[in-house]
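Can you give me the bound-state structure? Components:
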Amino acid sequence: MMAGNRGFDELKFRDPVRARALSDTLGRLTTAIGRSPVSIMHVCGSHEQAIARFGLRATLPRDLNVIMGPGCPVCITDVPEVDEGVALARQGVRIATYGDMVKVPGTVMSLADAQAEGARVDVVYSVSQAVEIARQSDEPLVFFATGFETTAVATAAAILGGPPDNFLVLSAHKYIPPVMEIVAEMPATRVEGFLAAGHAATITGWGVFEPFVARHKLPVVVAGFEPLDILAGLVKLVELIGERRAAVENMYPRCVTKEGNRRAQEQLWKVFRPIGGRWRGIAHVPNGNLRLRDEWAHLDARRRFDIDVAGLWDYAPRPLVHECICGDIMAGIKSPTDCALFGKECVPHSPVGACMVSSEGTCKIWHQYGGHPDLAPRSVTGGESGAVCAR
Amino acid sequence: MAPSVLDERITLKYGAGGQAMRTLIQQVFVDGMAAGPPHVGIGLAAMDDGAALRIGNRWLVMTTDSHVIHPVFFPGGDIGRLAVSGTVNDLAMMGATDVLGLTCAVIIEEGFPRADLVRIQRSIRETCEEAGAFVVTGDTKVMGKGELDGIVLNTTGIAMTDRVIPDSGLRPGDRLVVTGTIGDHGMAVMARRHGLALEGDLRSDVAPLNRLVRQVLDSAPDAIVAMKDPTRGGLASALHEMAEKSRVGIVLEEMALPVTSPVRAAGELLGIDPVHVANEGKAVLGVRPDAVDVVLAALREHHLGRDAACVGTCTDERIGSIILDTGFGRRLVTEVEGEPLPRIC
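Here's the bound-state model for the whole set.
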C-alpha cells in the first residue's frame, strides 16, 4: 500500500530536516553580516522555479534579498525574435519550438495566436524531436531555437548530427556569462554575489566565472536545483559575502567541473558564433546572442527565407506594453508587485510581458506561487508544521 | 482572476478546465440561458458536475460529456472507456451511484478503421459492465475526412439518489481525501501524444468510480460533504472550484499526496506538477474530520481506492486559495492556464 508520497524518502537532496538545518545556518550567517538587506542574484529560471516550487522563499531570512536576474530564456527572447517566428509561421512555414515559447507575445501576436489563425506550430520537448518531425516529410521545418547554452549545445549537436535538408534553425539562443557583466555594472544594482546555474556550468565549467570574479570582486557560487542544493549554495554565498572573499565556489560538484564539458563546448562554438544583441527588457548585451556560423548558412532560416516581419505591423499593436516593467524586474531593480499591470491586466492567460508567460518568468512564478507572502499556519490546522495528514 | 471579457476567438485555453473555461461557460451559456424550471435543485448556474432534478422526494441526477482524445487508444484505456467512466463519475460525484441508463452518440470521421470502432464498442461494453450501467439509446453520424479528428463520443447519463452531494459543502476543519494516486491519466496521454520516450509504467487511471463511491457513502453516510472528480486541470482545479464555491481555504500537504514514481519522474522531467494533471479514475472527497479514518478504511477496501490518502485540510483563512505545504515551506497552488506544456529546461 502506498502511504503518501513515499518517493520523497528516496530523494536525499529533498530532506526537510537537513533543509531546516541549512536554513538556520543561513539565518545566522546573514544576521552576522549586520547589514540589511544582503542582496544576491541568481541568473536562472530553474533556480527561481525550484525556490518557488518548494516554498523556500517563505523560509529565507528576512534580511536576505534573493533577486531573480535575467535567467529566464523565454523572457529575454526579444520581441523582434518572436516576431520572426510568428511571421514565418504566418507565411505558412511549419514551426517547432519549446512549449513555453508558444505563448510569448511578440509585437502583435504570439505563436499561439498564429496557430489559432491556422499556422502550424508543433510543441517539442527537445531539438531531436523537431529533427524527427522534419524527417517525416520533405517540407521545410523551422526549429525556433531558444534558451541558453544548456539548450544551445543540444541544437549544435543536432546540427552536427546531420539533420535532413528540410530541417532549419531560427536561432534565438543566448549566452549567459556576458549578461552577468551587464548586471554587475548597472548603476542601480545592489547585488553582492551571484548564484550561478548548475546546468549551464556543467557545460561551461565553473572556471568560466573566474575572470568575472576578478573584474568585479563579487563572489559566484555554482548551485544545483534540489532544495538542499539551493540552500547549500546560498549558505556558501552568504559566507563568502560575510568574509568579503571574492571567489568562485562549486557547490554542485556531482555534476560540475572546472573545465566543464569540453566536447559540448567544442560543438557549441563549431555551430554558433556570439554576436551582440538585445535581450528583452534588459539591454544590448555584447556577445549575448548565439547565431549560426556561415558554414551552416544552408540551415539558417534567416538566410533561407525572406521573413516578412513588417507584414505583422498591419495589425494594431498590443496596448499596455509600454507600461510593462519586465526589464527592471529581470535586472533585479524592481519586483513584480511594483508593476501596475501585475495580476490585473497582465495575467498568465493574457500576458502583457514575457515574464508572465514562461513558467520560469518571475511574474508568472510570483503569480503562480504567491511570491513570498506570509503563508504560515495561523489556525485550524494546528501542530508545529501544520501537517495533519502526513503521519 | 477571471478574464472579464472573452477573446474574439476561442483558443485551446478555453477548453483546458481552468478559469478561462469557467468564464466562457459562465458568460456564454449560464448567463445566456433561461433559469431552470422549479423542480431543478442544482441547475446550470451551479456549474456542478451535473444537474439534480426533484422527482417526488428523490433526485434525478443528469449529466452529459463529450469525449475527444488524441490518441484514441492510450496506455491504460481508450476513448470508449473514457466516455463511460467520465459520465458515470460525474453522476457518482453528486452521490448518484446507481446508473439508470446511458446514451451514446458517436460522430465518426470518414475513413476511420472499422476494427478500431469495434474495439471501442467492446471497451464501452466492458466498462458499462464494471459500472453496472447500460447504454439505452444512441446516435451515429459520419463526417467528411478532416472535418473532425477520428472520433467523437458523447455520453449522457441519468441516475437517482436520495441525497445530492454538491461540490460546495466544505467547512473549515474538514479534511480532503483523494481516492488514489494523482496525475496518472494526463501524464500517460501527454507522454504518448508528445512522443516522449518515457512511457515506462505510465498508465491512465480511467475507471468508473460509482461502486467505490457507493461503498464509501454507505460507510459514513453523513460525513462526506463534497465530492469532485479532478479531471482536466487536475487536483488543483478541482480544489479551487470546491474552495471557491464552499468559501474556504485549503492547505494541501505535498508529502501526503499519493503519486506514483513514474508520474513524479515524468513531472520532474517535463516541469509539470502532478496536481495540474488530469485524472479519470479518481475523486477528491470533503470529509468531516472525525470520519477520516472510517472513510479511508472504506476506500482502501476497494481496489480502486487502495492508495487513498488524506491530503489536506480546509481553513477559514485565504478563502478560495490553495496553499501547498511542501515540507520545506509553503506556497500557493494556482490553476493551470491552458494545456500544460513541457518547459524549455
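A couple of observations. The longest helix of chain A spans residues 16-33. The longest strand of chain A covers residues 283-292.
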